[in-house]
Design brief:
With 467 residues, the chain is mainly α. The protein folds into 2 domains: 15-418, Up-down Bundle (Growth Hormone, Chain: A); 429-466, no CATH class. The protein is built from 22 helices and no strands. The chain has helices spanning 7-11, 16-41, 43-50, 56-72, 74-88, 90-107, 114-117, 119-150, 156-185, 190-208, 215-222, 230-246, 249-267, 273-297, 303-327, 331-345, 352-357, 364-394, 396-416, 423-434, 442-451, 458-466. The radius of gyration is 23 Å and the shape is globular. The protein starts with 6 loop residues before the first helix and ends with a helix.
Amino acid sequence: MLKTPSVEAAQKSLGSEEKKALGIVLTGNFLEYFDLMLFSHLAFVVSPYFMPKTDPLVVNILSIFAFSSSFVIRPFAAYFWGYVGDNFGRVVVLSYTTLIMAVTCFLIPNIPPYAEWGIYSTFLIIGCRILQGFSSAGEAKGAEIFVAEIVPHYPKIFLASVMVPITCDLGGMFATLLGSLCLAFSPEGWKVCFYIGAAIAFCSSISRKKLRETKDFLNYAKSKKLPPTRIQRFFEKRNFLALIGLNMICPTAFYFAYSFCSDLLKNDIGLSIQTILLNNSLLIAIEIIFLFICARLAYLFDPFKILKVRTFASLILLPVIFIILFFYKTHLTIFLAQLIALLSTASFDPATPVIIRSFTMRSRFSKYSKAWAFAKALMYFTTGFLTFYFYTWFDIWGILALLMFFSVIFCLSLYAFVPQHKMAETFSNIIAKRNKNTLITSKTLERYILAENLTSHRTYLKKWIES
């Protein structure tokens, strides 16, 4: 359990510089995800414009790849942005990623349709999506890390941190609403959305260059940069693998809720495009409220306990709603299935700042972004194909099996991850089991540290043990 903050710490308000930095980062995050989600939410309108209309199977595969291509590039981008973020700072990453997103948003509506350029149009749109994925890989994690470091005290860090996914959702909701409005005037109104996205992204890139680097990174840059201890390395490897597992459910839930269910609403229920976009906007609004409630609950409860309750609830509610969906496939039942899939394990908020701070400053950006990128690239690339074939073979029960499988992985990863405030206790238990002791004291642990030739970190680890 995290230490309960004092009344003074709980009531401590953010300084003017902190508020200004948070405002710039969150505004830029909103604009970045508005640009990224434009294609995701308008894929069923934009993709046919750049795809061949001959073989339905080829069209479906190319459409899935166009949707997933921005996520496939993320592991390579994570290496690049991780190196930049850990060595040159978070502000550099936030500025240039937004600029790349602005350029791609300007290019997409200027690509000629497939009827004019043929397969070259398909390749160009996939190339733009790859660049967007390259950009978002740095921006998404950079914003989360920046916010987690700029707010130094609990419990306000939970509310500040959860504002990152909330602004992401607001950007996505604004994209759906603007897309619906523009399409109501013209079938090619989606082009206006991308031009608007390009303009606001350029403005965001300029404003982010005025940000000051976080104190945590500046202090680390000025320090001697001691290498991590064996204890820290042990938990970083374990937490890195656990973090990959925590990130695997989100792409599956996202694709099911916004792509697969949108097709059901369009083809099986017969809803119009505008109605589907409004339906998805309502989902995002509910998700925003839910994330805010989770952040407020983190003032009272351990955020990891909140995640465990959500996970167990999903393991119960998902089969129930799919049974109902099998017998009654209506707009309401599909909407409830979308809602449960998104709210249950679609993210690991409000525990994000605790997870980020469990990695050392030496490789925090790269470790955190790589785990996210590897999981998202694998899942977004495979989820579309898995969903298509599992639904073809097993109907909706195949989709349920996928969601349940990754929910279980999320649950196991949640128990495997060791937050920083529990590392000393967990490590003590590991040593106690090796020595067949029922209890190990701080002095015994310190003697073990000295025996492992960790004397250069003795002062730091002693404070760590006592805390």
